[in-house]
Amino acid sequence: MTTSVQGKLDEALSGEAFEKRIRRRNLKDALARYGISFGGVGVIFAVLLIMFFLFYVVLPLFTPASIEKSHSFALPGGEQEKTLYYGVDEYKSSAIRFTESGKLVGFDLVNGAENFNESLPLNGNDITSFTVVNELTHLVAFGLSDGSLLFAKYGYNVTYPDNVKTITPKVEYPFGEESIELADDAISKLSIKAGESEMRIAYQVAGQQRVYIKEFSKVESMLSDSVTLEENNSGEFTPTSKVKWLKMDVSGRNLYLIDADGATDFYDIRYIDEPALVQHVNLLKNDEKPTLIRFLLGDYSLMIGTNKGNVYQWFPVRDDNNNFALQQIRSFKVSDAAVTSIGIELARKGFAVTDNQGGFHLYHSTAERHLGSETFADKGGDANVTMAPRANGAVVESGNQIVFFDIENEHPDVSFSSLWGKVWYEGYEEPSYTWQSSSASSDFEPKFSLTPLTFGTIKAALYSMLFAVPIAILAAIYTAFFMDKATRQWVKPSVELIEALPTVILGFLAGLWLAPYMEANLPGFFAILILVPIGIVLFGYAWSRLPESIRLTVPVGRRAVLMIPVIIVLGWLALQLSSPIENAFFDGNMRHWLTAEAGIDFDQRNAMVIGFAMGFALIPTIFSVTEDAIYNVPSYLVNGSLALGASGWQTLVGVVLPTASPGIFSAIMLGFGRGVGETMIVLMASGNTPLMEVNIFEGMRTLSANLAVEMAEAEVASSHYRVLFLAGLVLFIFTFIFNTLAEVVRQRMRRKYGSL
Q: Domain ABC transmembrane type-1, which positions (predicted)?
């Protein structure tokens, strides 16, 4: 190096300008380093914050109930009379007590002060039987000693004396204060169910074994708002044993006659004049005896409390021959002491139980959860429990005392078993995985199983991957390894441009155009899967047999372009063959043939539509990453293999694909991750039916689509709302675990093939 050159080099690497460049470069390096670090930490913090928020919303689902003995006071009205029933207002401020002598005592739930006193218009008769007609509308009925029937409906008046909100009970008589003649002697057993226009009454008369059934129509007066009952039909029969409990379910068609040992006659009274004995069954085994029997909310499930501290749930189940039979569904071990009372929640399938050792226990039937227990008395004895309408309190009568419990129990209907296990719901023929979060019925049993949603998520992703992965990877292999550079420069951006299509547009097209078109041309789409691959192979063979002068007119790297019209023609031909194939093999209607002959259910919006539509959306992601991985394999590896005499295919299989395998695996995982989280396509084209069927012709509902459908309708902080967030958390954790495992596999593949 000459002296002049060395001098200029020294001058360039020293001096004020050099120092300024160094400081400027160091500043940029520092900004880049801290900026990237801050961004990375920010991303991690954002992910953790999202997870924390999801846990914050979901955690209350699994917190136990809080049961606190609030206060107690002397029994209003005195303990001389037996209590028939309690009613509680929804604000837990006032209650009403019905006694066996016909007294109605209203009292303040805070201090026990009486605020209402009245007597039923019994006209000198005694109450010989009692039944609750409808818990939700507060309608009750009394059987009298002269064989007549009196209906009463309680409610509450809200007043503001001295600007203080005051709630006091009131009682009305919807069918008049005059009792309705029903029998010639005292009514000893009574059960009533009322619909909008009719009423069914089952009863027994004192001293008789026969059970009588009558049907009445409700007739509204044209001159007033009064309603009268007119008898339409009647029937009677003799039970097989002495009846202790007479229970008619919500439909008014099923009647249960239960004796002191739990032996039950199940009668179908759909036709009142021809009652039919459906089943005779013993509800209990060995020496266990029922102590009380009542319906759960909805008057469908029988809850049987026993002398050994158990509560059993029974309800009728339909068999394969469309016949119903009572079946035990669940059992709850309350304590070792006899059950003395059961109080039901009026908005959920929960219930409270008291035992004769002074224990108060809270349960939920569907979730099979024991939510908590508390003690209301130091010694045993009979008790009577009534739940507040909002299930946030309970009134327990024990001896000469009223004990009030404050309850905080927001989400009893969710448990691990109800979320992930099979649950036997009321009206179902067997336990099932079911998602049905809402209904118009006030006694609806929510079904919060996440299993069908998780299954649907995986099903949608797998079927779409079956369509997308072979096409995307094979196209990427050809584009990166065989296609010439000029053609690749417009093919790759064109494919990647598809990724910019909004998925809502793809879902719209799939749901409104592809699904009905696929249904109408189902054999044609299956013909595409067979005809197009065979046609491509035949075209390639035919091209190879052409004279070399013709083949050389198209460069090797551009010959794939020739396949575009071939594939279009083959696809068109397959669809044109749809009708001939359908007429030849499927009696002119493949959908009907699948259902009637093959026994395969078919929905228009199904997994096959999702496979095509969402697979189309996944192709650009998988193609782009795979193509980059193959194209970036070092050229010296490829050249070395070719120089050693390997053919292009041998080089691809032995060198290129193993080297690019970590990237190819990452592409597949990215595609699967997008398929799991895809919302709009499955929302619009899957039918949104939460089924657990691998059938490609049936739809599904995914976790993400379920969030999009139901989140806007969910009440904030309700069980439904929190379960939807739990679904989001499950999707989050599933994606996190799957991506972590995929990264571990990718790193191992990189170490294995990185030495090539």
A: 454-742
